[in-house]
Amino acid sequence: MKNIILFLLLSITVTVDAQTVGVLSYSEEAMDGYTFFSPFSGTKAYLVDNCGHLINEWDRGTRPGLSAYFLDNGLMLRTYKATLAGPFTSASNAGGLELVDWDNNTIWSYEINSAEQLSHHDAVMMSNGNILVLTWELTYRDELVSLGRNPDEISVEDYMWSEKILEIEPVGTNEANIVWQWHINDHYVQDFDETKEGFDIVAEHPELFDINLPELNSNNSNSTRDWNHFNAIDYNESLDQILVSVRNSDEIWILDHTTTTEEAASHQGGRYGKGGDILYRWGNAAAYDGAATSDQQLYGQHGAHWIPQGLANEGEILIFNNGNGQPGPDYSQIEILNPPQDSAGFYSYDDIKYGPDAANTIYGDLSSEQFYSAFLSNAQRLENGNILVNSGSPGRIFEITQNDEIVWEYEIPLFGDTPATQGQNVNNNSSFRAYKFNPDYLGFDGLDLTPGDPIENEPLECQLNVATIDENRNSEIWYSSSDRRIHFRNASTYDGQLTIFDMQGQKILCDKVRNRSSVPIPPLSAGIYIGLINSNNEIIKIKFSVF
């Protein structure tokens, strides 16, 4: 029979001494779960636990282009850089889409890659199984001039990269049907040439994009061709709307997906009667002459998306505001935007600009200038109320509480595809997106989540440091090896749930305690285990050793 020693604890703090890569720190306030990322310069995607142990690895042989998502059906949706067929010279190129299973098998793949068009940056899976894809298409000089573009502002190649959004239905293993599409070429306004299409007063048409808008964010080497630079797309099923991040005008836009393709090419139709015109835009009202440039709010933003239902701030928009090109020192911010809507779902417009005047800044300010990612990046609201931050450019992922406390911190331990060695300072480890999932996430059903070794070489041990106090209270809680139960002498005083971890941070058990005299636990190997119990809104921490 194994002997059990039970202690009550003052606190639990996870520390990892002298780490330069991998898990730098985490505490009990971090959400138990698994973090998914796919580095920009490598060919792999990874899933790691809170101690940095590798749970799964997908080696695809191509670089991402740029996004990758682990879906609730257990598949990975990934964009990839196809062999380029057209004149698209951007680090954001994709060309390929694929669905990949847990064992790295390709379930479906499809390329949008020709001399005239190329998928880029991002794609999002819809609940009906279709995929919305950001795509560039070439628009040549004659059409640009007819749309009212200043001929002197057309690139020397005599074309520009116009944006379109495709909704594709995966078919078979490498085919797709285009079931809906939207083109920006159908939604321009201009005040340059009254003899050309779309001539009007720009400030009176915020639902349209000024085709002659001066370059606002000059940190794009392809700006004379790629003058919109969509870098994120999201879909809201309940609203049937599409959200895009428009980096080069420092805005987010919302579009109506209730339209047919024909309506999306017009200014009428759909639930809101605007066809494919912009329903809402925010971040830089100067882009439609709604405010002075000094009123600008977003600077090179990425990762804009609606916060899912059931989470704090559900239905609002979470944005990684990179701060790229803003006046003053370099720093990034995590912001939540709540667009004003009336009871019918229309976005409010005050005849000057769209509100609100400012977003709610969740993290990042002048006092934390060290938090900065010039490019890439995203943030994610977690089930426990924390926010996961992917500071994409430096390859740093961290989790913050609502009090701005960093409770988990991870330096991607890679040089491209090459694992770093503990003690090295890494580079070439940037990540476009990162996401964290709790252990109950639907996508993990039936999968083997057994942790392996950390990605880095010579990893340091990730362990819990604990302190024991008040051993006289041992009689209140005890473990019985005969029935493998933790018992509570005064069951009515305990509330919430009991969670047990091993010393590697792996969750062994999560069970309700409320008014129960005992909780069964699984057979345990010899070692030390940590338990957390809610008691009258106070956290009781226990440690017990099995010999």
CATH architecture of the largest domain: 6 Propeller
Assembly state here?
single chain
> Looking at CATH, which topology of the largest domain would you report?
Neuraminidase
Regarding CATH, which class of the largest domain? Mainly Beta
Q: DSSP helix count?
A: 2
CATH superfamily of the largest domain: TolB, C-terminal domain
Task: Please mark out the parts with pLDDT under 50 across 5 or more consecutive residues, or reply none.
Answer: 1-17, 463-474
The first-to-last residue Cα distance is 9 Å
pLDDT average, as an integer? 88
User: Into which percentage range does the β-strand content fall?
Assistant: 35-45%
- By DSSP, the count of extended strands is 38
Structural class: mainly beta
The largest pleated sheet is described as: 11 strands, antiparallel
Instruction: Label the overall shape.
Output: elongated
Secondary structure: helix percent:
under 10%
Radius of gyration: 26 Å
Overall number of domains:
2
Task: Show the helix and strand layout.
Layout: E1 4-15, E2 22-27, E3 34-39, E4 44-48, E5 54-59, E6 64-70, E7 76-81, E8 95-100, E9 106-111, E10 117-125, E11 131-140, H1 141-146, E12 159-171, E13 175-183, E14 188-189, E15 209-210, E16 230-236, E17 241-246, E18 251-256, H2 261-264, E19 280-282, E20 302-306, E21 317-321, E22 333-337, E23 360-363, E24 378-381, E25 387-391, E26 396-400, E27 406-411, E28 414-415, E29 418-419, E30 431-437, E31 463-469, E32 477-480, E33 485-488, E34 497-502, E35 507-512, E36 518-520, E37 527-535, E38 538-546
Parallel strand pairs: 14-15
Antiparallel strand pairs: 1-2, 1-31, 1-38, 2-27, 3-4, 3-30, 4-5, 6-7, 7-8, 8-9, 10-11, 11-12, 12-13, 16-17, 17-18, 18-19, 20-21, 21-22, 22-23, 24-25, 25-26, 26-27, 28-29, 32-33, 33-36, 34-35, 34-37, 37-38
